[in-house]
Amino acid sequence: MIKGHCDKEFLELKNILENQLITNYELGASIAVELDGKEVVNLYGGYKDENKNHEWEKDTLVNVFSVTKAVSGICISKIIDDGLLDVNNKVSDYWPEYGCNGKENTKVIDFLTHRAGMFGFKNGIPKASWNDWDIYVNALEKQSPYIVPGSSQGYHAVTFAWLVGELFKRVEGRTIGKYFKDEIAEPYKIDFHIGLNPEQINRCASIASFDRLDSIKPPIDFIKYVPNFFLNEELRNLKQSFQSKHFLEAFMPEPFTDNGPNSIDYRTAELPAGNGHGTASSLAKLFGILSTGCYRDNLTLMSEKTLEDATRVYSSGPDSVLFGVKLNFGYCFMLEGNKKSNVNFAPIFYKGTFGHAGIGGSVAFGDRKNKLGYSFVCNKQQKSSNLYKTSNMLTKALYDSIN
Question: What is the pLDDT of residues 102-119, one digit of tens each?
Answer without folding.
Answer: 999 999 999 999 999 999
